Every structure is written in structure tokens, then in C-alpha cells.
Amino acid sequence: MKKTQPPHYTAPTRQAATRSRQNITAFAYLAGIFVVGVAVILFLQGRLVIGGVPSSIIIQFLQDDIARSAYFSGNNVALHDRLDEMGIEEAMKTYYRPQISDEVVLDQHIHQVLYDRTGYVGEAYQVNGQGVLVLKSD
Q: In the prediction, which pLDDT does 68 show?
């Protein structure tokens, strides 16, 4: 026995299925643009943190020819000196101070982030076997 559809049912046409896929694709495209737009706005406002570094500091770094050159040439000492001249460490401390009130822990956190990004080990620190900076013992 052949099944019959109710009289009000009409099978979807190929055009309707294609139009539906196009609508879904257009929605996904617009959603993607929205997400990227929000990320760009947050980045430019300095509200994003990438690898522990606030985006406002990343922008400041990218605008400095000497710092960029030292970073991309792998000159960690020159990079650290330039970042110090630019006040990057203090800017990062200002950013993180509301979250980390202990100044010793704050300093170690900032140096760890900088070590992770640049490979530079500050004078007061040494790297343990797990790649974590620890204060040198006197």
C-alpha cells in the first residue's frame, strides 16, 4: 500500500533547499564578521590579553621600530632593554596590579610573561627545570 501525504503537504523544491542553504551560509558569514569585528574593537581598546600581554602593550610594541627589530632578530637583551626604556614592565604591572596585590608575586608574574614571550631572564631570576622563573637565592 502506498503512503499518501495529507493534502496540505507539498514537498520542498530544489530551489527552496538551495535558498535555505544560502540563508544559513549568509548568516554564518555575518556572524563571523561580527565576531571578528568585536575582537578587533576589543583589541584596539586594549581590553584583550594575548599570551598574558594586554593588547594595548602589544600595539605600543608593534609601533616601536627598535623593539620590533630586536624581537624579530632574536636579540633578547636589546629587546629587554628597549622594553624597559618604553616602560612596558611598569605598564604591565599597572594592568595586573588590581588582580595581583602582592608586589613580589606581581613582579614574578610579569617577568614570567616576558620570559615566555622573549626568552629574556631578568637578573633576579633563574629558570627551573619546568621553564618557570624563580627568584635566585642569595
A: 93
